[in-house]
Structure formats: structure tokens, C-alpha cells
Amino acid sequence: MTKKGDLLYAWTTDAGIREKAELGGAVTALWKYALASKTVDAVLAVTKGVDLYDAKPVIITDPDDLAKTAGSLHCGTLLLPKLIKKYLGGSKHTRIGVTVKGCDAMAFYELAKRRQLDLDRIIMIGVNCGGSVNPVTARTMIAEKYGIDPNTVYREEIDKGQFIIGYTGGHKGISVDELEEAGFGRRPNCRRCTMKIPRQADLACGNWGVIGSRAGKATFVEVCSEKGAALLDGAVKTGILATEAPDPKGIGIRAKIEDAMLRLGQMWRRRDFEGLGEGRDRLQVIMKETSRCIKCYQCISQCPICYCVDCSTKNPVYVPPGELPVSFMFHLIRFAHIADSCVNCGQCEDVCPMEIPNSLFMHAQHVELEKMFGYVPGVDRELPPHAFVEERAERARLANTGSDMIYENVFNPLPR
Ligand code: FAD
Ligand code: SF4
Ligand code: SF4
Ligand code: SF4
Ligand code: SF4
Predict the structure, then answer these.
(1) N or C end of the chain: which has fewer CB within 10 A?
(2) Considering 244, 265, 286, which residue would you say is the last residue of a domain?
(3) Does any ligand 2 atom lie closer than 6 A to the CB of residue 74?
(4) Distance, CA 342 to ligand 3 centroid (Å)?
(5) Does some domain include residue 152?
(6) Residue 126 sits in the same domain as residue 214
(7) Which pLDDT tens digit goes with each residue over 353-375?
(8) Sheet strands (E) in 128-235
(9) Number of domains composing the chain
(10) From the CA of 78, how far away is ligand 1's center (Å)?
(11) Is the same domain home to 78 and 123?
(12) Coil, helix or strand at residue 42
């Protein structure tokens, strides 16, 4: 019997999955077992769309359809939890299995604290994550740094610090460090990320530490919950998953790589945040950059911390409608509401049509708040400093007091 804390190598015996899988297909095999055994009603995973720059979320209910979700898409920058909130009723009536990167796992926890999701009905299989590449950046990078037509690329992988592509006529790898010095490589938020092995998930899977004859053919699994242990045991029992104890040297290598990645993340934080300056200088940089904003609301729509029925940025008292440049109050509201809980997922930056480094600004503020209040978002069920207030309940409470104190006092000041 497997238990929380166990470490093992795992791979599938299902030839169809193994052929498409990244590293032995343990993740996809676990999902196949979860669906077949009715442990979950549906699996939310990621699959290739028109090409490898186009990662699509997909809901699978037939175990035989799972093979198409196998493989790692390093240009897949989707964040999955908000899709469950928006389109799957917050998992309140469906048991869902979902493959998560570290930022997905963190967003799950933050949404669950805000009662937008039911974590008890969700199983998370985490994948270790060194980072993902913005698909638009990937195309430019492949054309400019590799000198290859991005449309001819049919395969990509990140291995031993290199971003490697397979294209019609050959393959080529360039070190991620070199790519990043040239302004390409992983997304800026990924460089600063320190959630490399998502232990908040039920299982954490990756290639770090798989050595010897299993290298490239198995996944290193860390069992992070009893739910994860039960899933794994069930899959092994049906024969779709095989496991063995990891090489002790591999365990040490995995720990060393994780440590090196964490130090790299801290280095990028220092570099990015120092680049923003401090105090008044930092404020001026943020005001200048955000003055390009066209108030398309995409950053709010994608942010896992934003879920309000009635967003304050749409209140004309705060943000006058129809004005460009948009009042800085729009961004101040976002900073005030989100900075304590930002999980640095990068979504607000990825989707911004004006290329405003929103994630950098929010993350820089978050780390200061984290130092002040000690609140680390996305790792457990602890509430944030801006403790959760259910918006509808708060409105009802205000209505029941007979007056909406905030607006009445502003527009009809009470007699002194
Ligand atoms: P498979 O059976 O092939 O299943 C892969 C699962 O990942 C599927 O459920 C698929 O839908 C999902 N998936 C694919 N792309 C994405 C995506 N972009 N976002 C969310 N889910 C996705 N392991 C390491 O040890 N070190 C790393 O640095 C590392 N970086 C990674 C970066 C990314 C962006 C991803 C997606 C994975 C990374 N991994 C890393 C994990 C590793 O590549 C394998 O996913 C893992 O070992 C499981 O292998 P498997 O054969 O069991 O998975
Ligand atoms: Fe991976 Fe972290 Fe980037 Fe998310 S933010 S894709 S977990 S490196
Ligand atoms: Fe993610 Fe941006 Fe929201 Fe932070 S502010 S959680 S980086 S979308
Ligand atoms: Fe996000 Fe604040 Fe709007 Fe809510 S009110 S959606 S937290 S910006
Ligand atoms: Fe403004 Fe960009 Fe947010 Fe759109 S996504 S509202 S342009 S900051």
C-alpha cells in the first residue's frame, strides 16, 4: 500500500498511451484508471490544437479518449482552475481530475478559499514545472534565434537546460539561459516562479531524478496525499500502471535540481524587481506603463483571484467610463484587491493586448506584502490578510443595515 510521502518511479503498460506520453505515461494512465473506476466523472487536461503553439483545454469523459492528452506542451500557458469555476459549476456537482502545474495548484487553493470551487471533489495530479514559453515568443524565438520556420517544428522539449526543437529536416537545441539573455525563453513570471514541484496536488510527477535504465521512460512520483495514494494503488492493481522504488542517487539529484531552480527563481525576482526601482520611482514606472491600458478587462477575466459578481473597477464613481487614458484607480483597485494573494501565474500579462507587465507589477507588490504579513498564497487553506468576504452576503448585510454606508456617506454626508 502506498502512503503520503512515498517516492517512486512509475510508467504505464498501455502501449497507446506510452507512444504519445512525455515520460512513460504515468499521468495519463492514472487518469484512465480514475475515469474507468468512476473515481472522477471527468478529466480536465491539455491537448495540442492546430499546432504545438496551440494548447487547448479539453474535458474527457471516455477513458479511451485520454491518449490524445498525453505529452507535455511547453508552450501551453493555460491556467485551468478558473475554467472549472466558469464552465463546470466550480466542481460542486462533478468530480473532476485535473493535471496541474504549480501555478494551477496555487490558483486552485486560492479559489477554493473564496468558495468558488470545491476542492474535495477535485483530484490534482501535479507536474513539476521548470517553466513555459509564451507561444508568440516561441514563434519569434524559433525564427530569430534558431533560424527555423516555426511552422516546420513538430516537436519541442526542455531537457538538460536546453529548449530543443525537432523540425522538418533536423533538430536543434539552445540553452535556456542563452535564450533568456536574448529576451526569449520562459515567460517572465515562470523565471520568477518558485513552485517547481507542486506538492499541494495529490501526486507530484516529473522527470527530475529518473536515472539509469528508466531515464526518459518513467516519471518520478511523489505521493502528496492519501487521495493520491489511493489513486495510485488502484491504477497499479488494474495493471495499467507499473512502479518501482527510485534510485537513491536519483532522489538526491531531484532535490539538488529543485534547490537550483528555486535559487534561479530568487535570482530572477531580484533582477526583475530591482529593475522596477523603489518607492516613488517604482510608482512612476507602474503609472507610465499602465497608462497604455484600454480597459479591456481581460486581466480581470483571467485572474484566478478575481471572481466578483460586480467588479469595483466598473463602478463609475471610481473609474470614470469612456476615458482614455484610463484612470490609474483601475489599477489601484486591482493592486489593493489582489496583491496579497497573487500567485504569479502570468495570466494578466499574457492576455494584455497593450503588453503591460501586469504580472510583474502585482508580483513585486505581493512579495513585499508576503514579507509584512507572512501570508504565502496557494500552499494551504489559510485565509489571506484580506480575509474572504462573500460578495452577495456582504451586499445583503449592507442592505439589512438599512443603508449602504459607503455611498450614502459619500453622496449624502450625515449631519454633524
Ligand atoms: P503524460 O502521460 O504524457 O501526461 C502529461 C499530462 O500533462 C497530460 O495530462 C497533459 O494534458 C498535461 N499537460 C501537457 N502540457 C500541459 C500544460 N502546458 N499545462 C498543463 N498540463 C499540461 N518535469 C520535470 O521534472 N522538470 C521540469 O522542468 C518540467 N517542466 C515541465 C513544464 C511543463 C510546461 C509541463 C507541462 C511539464 C513539465 N514537467 C517537468 C513534467 C514532465 O514533462 C511530465 O509531464 C511528467 O513527468 C509526467 O510525464 P508522463 O509521461 O507521466 O505524462
Ligand atoms: Fe510553471 Fe511556475 Fe510558470 Fe506556472 S508559473 S507555468 S508553475 S514555472
Ligand atoms: Fe495571476 Fe496576474 Fe492574478 Fe497575479 S494578478 S494571480 S499573476 S492573473
Ligand atoms: Fe478583481 Fe477587485 Fe474586480 Fe473583484 S472587485 S473582480 S477582486 S478587481
Ligand atoms: Fe488594461 Fe491590459 Fe488589463 Fe486590458 S488586460 S484592462 S489593457 S491592463
Answers:
(1) C
(2) 265
(3) no
(4) 5
(5) no
(6) yes
(7) 999 999 999 999 999 999 999 99
(8) 153-159, 162-167, 170-175, 203-206, 219-223
(9) 2
(10) 13
(11) yes
(12) strand
